[in-house]
Amino acid sequence: MSRMGTSTSDRVRTTGLSARPRTLAAAAIVLLGAGLGPVALPAAADSGTPAEAVFPAGVRSAPLGDTLYTAGGSGFLHTQEGKGEYLWTDFASGRTEPLTAMTALVNSGLMGFPASKSMSVVDLANGERVVTALPTGRFITGAFTMSEVLTYEKPAGGTITGLHLLRAAEGQVTDVALPADALPEGYTSIRTVAQDLRGAVLELGGGPSGKRLVLVDYATGAVTGLFASLAAPPSRIALSADRVLGWFGSAGALNAWVVPRADTAAEPRAVAIPPLEGASFQPVVTLALAGDWIVVARARDPLSSRPGRTLTAVPVGGGEARTLLTYATNQLVTAADGSVLVVGGAGVTDWAVRRVTASGAEPVVTDVLPLHAVNARVDGLALGAGKLSVASDADGSSLRSLYGFDLAPTGAPEPGPRALLFPLHNWYKPCQAGSDCVELHALGNGHIAYADHGDSVNSPRTPSSLASVVLPNTGNRIVDSSGRYTVVDDGTQGKQYVGDFEQHRENNVTLTRTTTAASVWGTGLWKPGPVKGTVDVFDLKTRKTSSAVDVGAGCVPQELQTVGRWVYWSCGPAGKAGVWDRIGKKSIAVPSGEALLGDGFLVRHDRAAGKLLLTDFHGGAGTAAVTGEFADLPAEDGLVSDRRINWTVDKYGGDVAFVDAGNRIHVKRVGVPRSPVTSIEATTDDYSNLLWSPPQNVWHGTWQLSRPPVGWSLTFRNAAGKAVRTIRGTAHEGAQIATTWNGRDDRGAVVPGGRHTWSLAADPGDGSGFRTVSSGAVQLAGAKSAWRDFNGDGTGELVGLTTSGTLRHLGFDLNGGVAMSSSKGWNTGYRFVPFGDLDGDGCADMLVRTTSGALYRYSGRCGGSVSTAGPKLSMGTGFQAFDVLTSPGDLSGDGRPDLVVRKTSTSDVWLYKATSSGRLASRVKLASKWTGYKKIVGAGDLNGDGFGDLLVQDKANVLWRYNGDGKGHLKARVKLASKWGADYNVVAGAGDITADGRMDLLVRDTKNRVWLYKGNGKGAFGARKLLMDGISGYKTLS
């Protein structure tokens, strides 16, 4: 080794690296409870501050990115996602110092800064800097330490002629020429492929025999060839204290070669790298030496959501591989002490910079720097009736999915466990071109809607199923949604569609119209009226349009939004805007700009100021709106519109949600008084048959409320107004309640069929208590038979015996239709008495008097006429003594139908009460000598008191009513009509014919016409109505 000359070296102890201000910005982290999902941060303790919950959508599928560059004896250099600078982390303390980003060379904890005439080297552990001037004609190879800089000579246009090591000591630099005979001749390029503090491996190129590798030893100045016996030198090199490792950095390469560092001329030892099991191809490997082990990292599968591949170690001398980490990146950095740094772990919540050492028989992995999980990005936001929905790449998948959180209804809106709504992937229409965002619309019923990139608008119902509205064109945009309905503009044809998610997708476009501003709330579609400045509402169920109202806009509204009593209108982004108060009949002026309407308030995003602003107008018309700051929300670059993406309003629940820069979701209560809870849309059965197959054999009801309830009650009442069943619950989906009724009362017994009314009350949980929000009626069939209902449809029938012995049950509708069931083979001399349920099976029975005077009970079937072969029971004999046999219903108040008879010889009237065994008790006299009545008719409960009544027609054709008292007696008669029914040859109390829960009367005149007298439920009847013209061929009708 010869001294060629000296130059100066500036050794400076720099403090700038540690004196820079620390940056507190970091990748957002996720707090995880013990298996309970995201933990919301506590709301502010100030009771005057609206309650707020802050939480992430989840953990991003990719871990926090961290790139390793070099490691010294006391720390390592790296960069981290979200930080635009280099970081130096100390091994012992874990302390991290930021460095300004720069282009530099690195080696074992040192950073080199090459220039045309100098090389500056900084010790990253202590900030010490050494600047070495380069002699003329020298070029930097890229290899260096704090005291050495390896350079080379190359004349212009020539080949490399020599290597020089510049050694710095005590302020002087010694230029040491390395042995020229060890350097191959004729090479034109040189680069450093591996280095440590002891030396460097150089790759020579552009020479006569391909690429060559040489190892430079700083201590001895020796330059020796590497892997010369191989057909081609390895493209990748790793160094350890005593070995040089080479391999080829290409896919499928699974061999490595090792030579002693002290004897590079030795024959390389081949080491087989075990293939990756189950892989369709073998990825590129990265190798490093840790003692007697080769550490193996592999390139990540770009098509997989996994954060990396398995990290293994192979003995240098051969043998079985060891698994070190479940996942790791393919970066391996050898530290000055011979350990290897790697980034990896068991998954995104167990991710860290880790160190592999080989101090014993087995390699050992220890933690160096934990890398906290990153909050998943939120690319769409919907909030409806206390349910938050987000589009995010949370947990386990790099593909976007829809997730939902149920929020606490009171106090701070803390989130419940996150649920997968639907794997969205890329099947959605971005909110704008070139973006990943998706606009979400809350329906208020626990579901959301979004437009896909095809021709559909979708609403996930389970993680594997969608309700879809299929439209004629692609490129659709949702304008508004509420409950079952969604309003969509096609964007190309000037058409607007209203879809119904609850209908079959083949015909669920319920309205097609020209595109205008529009909003849907419940069943009402709000739209501009026929005159400028007006709006009207089209009912999607009744198909009727209301009268237009002038909201004072002075323009054709460009945007409409509706929440209950409030209708927001806007003349454009910079135009006039207001909220029409449907109760106060006047508009309230509000600020212009992109906004979302809530119940009594409006929220706008002031993007320039980075604020969400809330305008409170809950006082209604005549009260000025008040606007104030609600929350900080800086605008996201690149988004033209960010509502329903970065922020949204719960128009059903009164909260506001937004996403901050760290992808934390904020849900904040709005302290504005709410409107009373109402039902804005209901779908209920008006007819229910308990004999149908499941699930149609129960009554169904679904109500979309304006607010989510904390409790509700549904009460059913019979025709007499008595409550028979109350169903109470707290279950709801958003602001939607759905329940069923099986036709049983509170004791579990089947109720009589027929008309029942229902009423729904809801408690919104604000202290106002339960409030009736909806009511209706159902015709119940297939239940316990209503009085004189034999076919189970809930309405009464006229029973007739033909002259040929066929028994027919005739059910009439109000349009003259007749539903008929029949049975043949009856004796034409029999007398039939339609009855209620005697045997307790829920079906109406028939009493039949034979020609001998025997009385039998024929059990009904709840589905048609009684049969001659059907079950029957003898009720006694001697009934030929009576000229009247009729059932008024329950006279005795025991809930069972009774029999009233008149004895022919005396005209006395008797009562046979039904017993619990399905028989008749001994008779009890009701009245004596009813000789003046030519017709006595059991009519059921005419006046709604729950007891059966009798109608009688006297010989002067006056119609009277005898009310039952519930104790087996009749009250004083009440006159109903005079000069009534002189031409009627049949008068029958046939039960409830009109399905309104009231007992009606059927008569036949001498022209064989059947007339209906509709009962009013108070003991009287309306005017008669012709039901059928020409009913004949019957021997008896009753």
Strand content: over 45%
Return the CATH topology of the largest domain.
Methylamine Dehydrogenase, Chain H
Instruction: Identify the strand order in the major beta sheet.
Output: 7-8-9-10-1-14-13-12-11
Count of spatially separate domains: 4
How far apart the termini lie comes to 133 Å
| Quaternary structure | single chain
Share of helical residues = under 10%
Mean pLDDT: 90
CATH level 1 name of the largest domain: Mainly Beta
SS-based structural class? mainly beta
**Radius of gyration, Cα only, in angstroms?**
45 Å
Organism: Actinacidiphila glaucinigra
Pfam family, one: FlgD_ig
Keywords: Signal
Protein name: Repeat domain-containing protein
Overview of the structural elements:
With 1038 residues, the chain is an all-beta fold. It has four domains: 179 residues, no CATH class; 292 residues, YVTN repeat-like/Quinoprotein amine dehydrogenase (Methylamine Dehydrogenase, Chain H, 7 Propeller), CATH 2.130.10.10; 94 residues, Immunoglobulin-like; 240 residues, Neuraminidase (6 Propeller). It contains one helix and 85 strands. It has a nine-stranded antiparallel beta sheet, with no helix packed on it. A hairpin with a 7-residue loop joins strand 20 and strand 21. It is elongated, with a radius of gyration of 45 Å. The relative contact order is 0.05.
